[in-house]
What we know:
The chain is mainly beta. The chain has one domain (33-277): 7 Propeller (Methylamine Dehydrogenase, Chain H), CATH 2.130.10.10. The protein has strands at 20-27, 36-39, 42-46, 51-56, 62-67, 77-79, 82-86, 91-95, 101-107, 117-120, 127-132, 137-142, 148-153, 163-164, 169-173, 178-183, 188-194, 204-206, 209-213, 219-223, 229-233, 245-246, 250-254, 259-264, 270-275, 285-286, 291-295, 300-305, 311-316, 326-328, 331-335, 340-346. The protein is globular, with a radius of gyration of 18 Å.
Amino acid sequence: MHRGTPTLTGRAASAAPAKPALKWTFKAGKPVLGGAAIAGDRVYFGSSAGIVHCVSLADGKEIWKFDTGSSIEAVPLILDGVCYIGAADGRLYALDGNGKKKWEPFETGDKILASASWANDPSSDKKWVLVGSYDFSFYAIDTATGKQVWKVETENYINSTPAITADGLALFGGCDALMHVVSLKEQKHVRKLDAEAYVPGSAAVDGKMAYFGGDSKKVYAFDVTNEKPVWTYRDRNFGYFASPALSDELVIIGARDKRVHALERKSGEARWHFATKGDVDSSPVLCKDGGVVFGSMDGRVYCVEVATGKERWRYEIGSDIASSPAVARGLIVIGANDGNVYCIGGE
């Protein structure tokens, strides 16, 4: 799923390739903005053409495809072998292992551009898919039936993938300049965090702490039990459209000042910056070996050291990259605006 797990911390269990080499390219035909999800030996992604693709991780050969007929910006959620993904037609699709509809698409009142997350029903053994829509609503949907269990309303479009805390809170942001905190047990808001401007990305959570950036040109650290930030960080007058990755010590986030920023989790002070030649809307992934992988609108994929920000390597794709990388088994899968998905491994 987007950012790996429902906490959205952007950590991969795999190491990054030591030296980059292209393993395969898949031609989706239209820009791949949301990125891919890797589950087992399969890779899933959607494109601006409205097609959901399932391909082999080993060689990029297509296993199945499903046409939604409407543009897709979300990263797929793969849960118990089912692919859940929203589209600009306002529907959430559930596709089985053969690319067939598990149930009729769940309809909202407007576009679903955000990626879905999931949680266990606190009062039963059921599972919920959780997703926000441009109809100003946040939905919990029964994975077995595709029916709405509950929803909460907001004041504007919802852009974020919901981050789920260990004690059952869902956090998501949107164009109402708020980070919403919703109790899954109570099925209602418990607080709203002031983000000062709209929130295009998602939060990463660890315990009671949540970290996110926004169009306020700031990065925030909140204790989710309190409505006031622990710290805020601002450097230059550019927004943060990426979602952060969390190491034990750092918050790592891309920005539209063409840099990746690494901030101390405790204080919000900058540890390092890494400069590219394009905006970094791609959300960084922290690999097991301390490599941080991300794309840039300068057409390159980068890997840098988490401790220092020193460059390990860069790989030239040659087309703007807005999507976030997926990392597994020493492979990086990333989509680009040229309509291709690239798999980069080691030499």
